[in-house]
Design brief:
4-stranded antiparallel β-sheet; 4 helices; 20% strand
C-alpha cells in the first residue's frame, strides 16, 4: 500500500452557486494554445510533447524538462519493431505552476535538431454557446427537449393484460 496520500481538489459548489453548473472561466485558468482550459489528471499535470526525435533518450528529456520543475513521471512510447521513440512523450508534473512553466518554456525548443511542440494533455474545451455546452442531459442534438421515450413491455407483462 502506498504511504503517500492523494491530493483532493476542493469542491467548487460554493464558488459556482449551483451544483452541476459549469465552473466559471477566470483569468487564473491555464489555457492551451487552442484556447481550451487545461485540467489536472488524477495524478498530476500532464504535458504532451510532440515532434520528438526518434533517437531522443530519456536522459535528454529529463535534462530539458527537469529545468522547469520536479518531474513526477516521464513516459516515452517506443516502436516495437524499431525500438525508437514514436514521436511523442508524456511528462507529468505535480503542480500546475511547473507544468505551465514547461509549456511556456519548452514549446518551440530544439531537441536533437528538431523543434518540439509542448501543450497540456488534458483539456476542457471552451464553451460553444456560453452555458452547458457539450452537456446534453435531456436535450438532443438539435438542442430541443426530447419527449420521454416509450418503452416496450416485457413479454410476461403483455400476456397478463
Amino acid at each position: 500500500m502506498a504511504t503517500t496520500e492523494m491530493d483532493i481538489d476542493q469542491p467548487n459548489d460554493s464558488i459556482n452557486g449551483a451544483a452541476g453548473s459549469p465552473p466559471p472561466t477566470t483569468t487564473s485558468d491555464t489555457h492551451t494554445s487552442t484556447g481550451a482550459v487545461a485540467v489536472r489528471s488524477i495524478e498530476g499535470w500532464i504535458v504532451l510533447v510532440t515532434n520528438v526525435h526518434e533517437e531522443a533518450s530519456e536522459e535528454d528529456l529529463q535534462e530539458l524538462f527537469g529545468d522547469y520543475g520536479d518531474i513526477k513521471n516521464l513516459h516515452m512510447n517506443l516502436d516495437r519493431r524499431t525500438g525508437y521513440v514514436k514521436g511523442y512523450v508524456l511528462v507529468e508534473y505535480p503542480t500546475q505552476k511547473e507544468a505551465k512553466a514547461a509549456v511556456a518554456g519548452a514549446n518551440g525548443a530544439k531537441l536533437l535538431d528538431q523543434t518540439i511542440n509542448v501543450d497540456f494533455a488534458f483539456v476542457r474545451p471552451p464553451p460553444k454557446d456560453g452555458h452547458n455546452a457539450g452537456r446534453r442531459g435531456e436535450r438532443g442534438r438539435s438542442g430541443l427537449k426530447k419527449a420521454p421515450r416509450e418503452r416496450s413491455r416485457s413479454p410476461n407483462e403483455a400476456e397478463k393484460e
